[in-house]
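Q: What would this chain look like folded?
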Amino acid sequence: NSDHLSACLWNRRTERQLADWTAIRYTADHILDYIELDSDHAIFEIAVPEKWIGKTVIEADVRKKHGINIMAIKRDGKMNLNFASETSFIPGDTILVLGDTKNIQKCFHI
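A: My prediction, written as structure tokens:
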């Protein structure tokens, strides 16, 4: 029946996502969370790269360079979705990024 098929497909997708997440966490300590949106796109919570500390969002320019969108900056445990492009990154910041999984992996060395 179609309900059973849907449940099986959902379980396989969930198992694959869990396997992917385990592999990512095992190989990349700077990745804090991961949500697969489809086979090509994902949202990652990533520690801000050291080379970005002191730079602004606009200076990092990940949208233009990598086709990745910064959705939020998390600082001191608080998620800021309404940050300015002039916001500077500081040590301890994490970011939520959305984009093509391959572009995110390349940009953040995952």
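The mean pLDDT is 81.
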